[in-house]
Design goal:
Number of helices of chain A: 10
Shape of chain A: globular
Radius of gyration of chain A: 19 Å
Largest sheet of chain A: 2 strands, antiparallel
Number of domains of chain B: 2
Strand order of the largest sheet of chain A: 1-2
Largest interface: A-B, 10 and 12 residues
Number of strands of chain B: 0
Number of domains of chain A: 1
Order of helices and strands of chain A: HHHHHHHHEEHH
Strand content of chain A: under 5%
Distance between the termini of chain A: 26 Å
Helix content of chain A: 55-70%
Helix content of chain B: 55-70%
Oligomer: heterodimer
Radius of gyration of chain B: 23 Å
Largest sheet of chain B: none
Number of strands of chain A: 2
Chain lengths: 207, 383
């Protein structure tokens, strides 16, 4: 395998090889936690940290782990990291941890994570694995934040919990869109992002 | 007529390949074929299966919708004055004027927004403009409450045309009925504007309403309503509160006759929707779950309107002839089940049709496969 450039490893997942919009992974949590911006940011950050660290650990172990039990080893590593993040969130950001509820725990089964460990960290050096983990985590966080931005703005009239749509608009007859707070709308916004990216990027279009 | 033809012929070169406005070719084509039947003919083999094209089919649907729309306009005015307690003094002219003032802007908004998107998409894709929206644009106002804010109509129409239709490839490719997508969008996005007691009256004002006035619809009351308004005769003719076009079962029946006579809608679908609804209505009434008799279930709310104009949409319903019976029956049955068993959704017709639209291809697939298997067996037996 030809040596990968660090820049491509890091930047690829942010645009052309985005885990959510191009590989269509991790959709379930993207639907569940994006009704507001704060949980989406925290979720994106948690996934970034866990992916990066798990990638490094697995990359360091890659030559010693027997092939037959590699999935178990990966799961143990991810599970420990997820537990740490979950405890930290409960200690320092209790409200957000409650909003995210099971979805922090479910990072263990996040397809993006397992995919990166299997596809990248098992074959590459720790340094590149770290970049790949951060890149994929940020690529995931980017989509979460875009979706959450529209859902919170149109669904609650707020951003990060602060009201941004003025009261006079409500008095003039404007109303929040209740559908935005339901999961189907997250799917539609995700689809719109994919639509936009494909329309502007020839490489992503199927022949 | 001939001067119009001459005018069109004189400006036509501008819109053809290489002309000044060649980008607007499909817009021009749409207007030309709207005014005159196209005179282009096939040079090779002939593939015409029917004498009418899509434009004339849609014209039939619009003709069938007109009685219900006119009655809807009158009823909107009628309900407005009933709310104010002024029915005795209001003349026919007052009532119609109030109805027109309330309904006409909704109709205009629906058409302007929908058609602009439709034309824009046709230009972008280089397609011809399709006329499917002419019917959809008329149905959308008819499934709205009279007091719905206009900007909400615009948002819902845009959503329905883009996500209900254009993303699937435009007219004829959609999975769900676009008018129902618009209504479902509103129902879930702005529930306070789509249900409740006040939205069914134009310019509702609680301070001016007569004492003890209750604005609830027959469905929300579930058979407990004031018998002077909610009797079978009123519900059949349509002098009850409800969405603009749906209250009159009589006008829907007139529409049904037009649609069946012209062959636009399938009698199999329409008939089995009523059978399914009547059967479920009878079961619920007999078991005491609903105080409404089966015949009342068929005339209140959007049941008749949905059965005649929405369930029979040839694009989103079943295509196999046997499938149409199953499809229609399940719509009727589901609509009554949702109405009676789920108090959160007093109107089940919309959800039932959308649900069965989703399953229509599966039903078709089963019948097609059954036919293939039957023929395969026949071949085996002959050998």
């Amino acid at each position: 395998m030809a040596a990968l450039k660090n820049k491509d490893v890091f930047c690829g997942p942010l645009s052309l090889n985005n885990p959510v919009t191009v590989q269509v992974l991790g959709i379930c949590s993207a639907l569940a936690v994006t009704a507001q911006l704060v949980p989406a940011l925290v979720m994106g950050l948690s996934v970034t940290i866990i992916t990066a660290l798990a990638n490094v650990v697995i990359s360091l172990l890659r030559k010693t782990v027997p092939n037959r039990i590699r999935i178990i080893v990966q799961l143990v590593v991810v599970a420990s990291l997820v537990t740490i993040v979950s405890e930290v969130l409960k200690a320092f950001a209790y409200d957000v941890a409650m909003t995210l509820s099971v979805y922090i725990g479910l990072i263990i089964t996040n397809c993006i994570l397992m995919g990166r460990l299997e596809a990248f960290a098992m074959q590459n050096s720790p340094m590149q694995s770290l970049l790949d983990g951060i890149g994929n985590g940020l690529g995931y966080a980017k989509i979460l934040v875009i979706v959450a931005f529209f859902r919170e703005l149109l669904g609650s009239g707020k951003l990060l919990g602060y009201q941004v749509i003025p009261d006079c608009a409500y008095e003039a007859g404007y109303a929040n869109n209740g559908l935005m707070l339901m999961p189907p709308m997250a799917l539609i916004i995700c689809a719109c992002i994919i639509w936009y990216e494909r329309a502007h990027n020839k490489d992503l279009q199927e022949k | 007529m001939s001067s119009l033809r001459d005018f069109i012929d004189s400006v036509k070169p501008n819109f053809e390949e290489g002309g000044k406005f060649s980008k607007l070719r499909s817009t021009f084509g749409a207007f030309e074929t709207f005014l005159f039947t196209p005179n282009t003919v096939n040079k090779g083999g002939v593939h015409v299966r029917d004498a009418v094209d899509l434009k004339r089919t849609i014209t039939c649907v619009i003709l069938a919708l007109i009685p219900a729309l006119l009655f809807g306009i009158y009823n909107t005015g009628y309900q407005h004055f009933r709310m104010l307690g002024l029915l005795d003094t209001a003349t026919f002219g007052d009532i119609v004027l109030e109805g027109i003032i309330a309904v006409f802007p909704i109709l205009v908004v629906s058409y302007v927004v929908g058609l602009s998107i439709e034309f824009a998409v046709a230009q972008m894709r280089g397609h011809e403009v399709n006329e499917g929206f002419l019917a959809t644009g008329m149905i959308i106002p008819m499934v709205m409450p009279a007091d719905v804010p206009l900007w909400i109509v615009a948002v819902a129409t845009a959503f329905a045309v883009i996500f209900g239709k254009e993303v699937f490839g435009g007219t004829g490719m959609n999975i769900w009925n676009p008018a129902l997508v618009a209504r479902a969008f509103l129902f879930f996005a702005y529930p306070t504007k789509m249900s409740g007691d006040s939205v069914w009256y134009s310019d509702f004002d609680a301070s001016q309403a007569v004492d003890g006035f209750s604005g609830a619809t027959a469905l929300a009351l579930n058979g407990q309503g004031d018998a002077s308004i909610f009797n079978f005769q009123n519900e059949f003719i349509g002098f009850i509160p409800g969405s603009i076009g749906e209250t009159s079962a009589l006008c829907c029946l007139i529409g049904a006759v037009i649609l069946l006579w012209t062959g636009v809608a399938s009698w199999k679908t329409m008939f089995s929707v009523f059978i399914g609804g009547a059967l479920m209505g009878y079961v619920f009434n007999a078991t005491g779950l609903s105080p409404l008799c089966w015949c009342e279930q068929l005339v209140i709310g959007g049941f008749a309107f949905g059965a005649v104009f929405m369930a029979t949409d040839p694009v989103t319903s079943c295509r196999t002839e046997k499938g149409k019976y199953i499809y229609g029956f399940l719509i009727g049955a589901m609509a009554i089940i949702i109405r009676v068993l789920n108090p959160g959704y007093p109107e089940g017709m919309m959800l039932a049709i959308l649900l069965m639209n989703t399953f229509a291809p599966v039903i078709d697939y089963c019948f097609v496969q059954a036919n293939i298997n039957r023929r395969k067996n026949r071949v085996k037996n002959v050998k």
